[in-house]
Amino acid sequence: MSITIDTNTFGFLLTDLARLIRADLDQRIVDEGIGLTPGEARTLLHAARAGEVRQNVLADRMGLEAMTLSTYVDRLEDRGLVQRVSDPSDRRAKLVRLTPAADEALQAIMRATAAVRGRAREGLSEEEWETLRQLLQKVRLNFSPAAEESGRE
């Protein structure tokens, strides 16, 4: 093959980093011993971040198929960590709402995410870490719906 692929391009670096972070976080969630699968823990974390949210919106935000998310929500509901309630604006739609019982699991998940962040920050100064975070936020903004709208004009 005559083409050389640079594996240190933005896309490769970001994809590899996301994969490595996810694997590390998944293991730490298991190690926390909270009895949740990594997928269930991610669902709980995203639900906490989003607040009371429609199940289909949560699936979209997580990049999951609706059926996959539904399975995670079913299991979380069985454990009493979330509940589904009818959306007052559309009774056919369901909202996912955290219960007070989710607090302990979320605390364990947050310990795991803090440990992953700590590992990611190794060798970086406070200033470098903050710069990286700000630059990544700018890149994310480039892909936001508002940026896409303004680019179409």
Describe the fold and architecture.
The chain is mostly helical. It has one domain: Arc Repressor Mutant, subunit A (Orthogonal Bundle). Helix content is 66%, strand content 11%. The chain has 7 helices and 3 strands. It has helices at residues 10-32, 38-50, 55-62, 66-78, 102-121, 126-142, 145-151, and strands spanning 53-54, 82-87, 90-98. The protein has a 3-stranded antiparallel sheet with strand order 1-3-2. Helix 2 (38-50) packs across helix 4, helix 2 crosses helix 5 (102-121) and helix 3 (55-62) crosses helix 4 (66-78). The termini are far apart. The model has no long low-confidence stretch (mean pLDDT 92).
The radius of gyration over CA amounts to 18 Å
End-to-end Cα distance: 41 Å
State the CATH architecture: Orthogonal Bundle
**Structural class per helix/strand content?**
mainly alpha
The total beta strand count reads: 3
Instruction: Output the CATH topology.
Output: Arc Repressor Mutant, subunit A
- Total helices: the number is 7
Largest sheet: 3 strands, antiparallel
**Domain module tally:** 1
Shape summary = globular
| Low-pLDDT residue intervals, each spanning 5 or more residues | none
| CATH homologous superfamily identity | Winged helix-like DNA-binding domain superfamily/Winged helix DNA-binding domain
Q: What percent of residues are in strands?
A: 5-15%
The portion of residues assigned to helices is 55-70%
- H and E string: HHEHHEEHHH
What's the CATH class label? Mainly Alpha
Instruction: Report strand order across the widest sheet.
Output: 1-3-2
Mean pLDDT, as a whole number?
Answer: 92
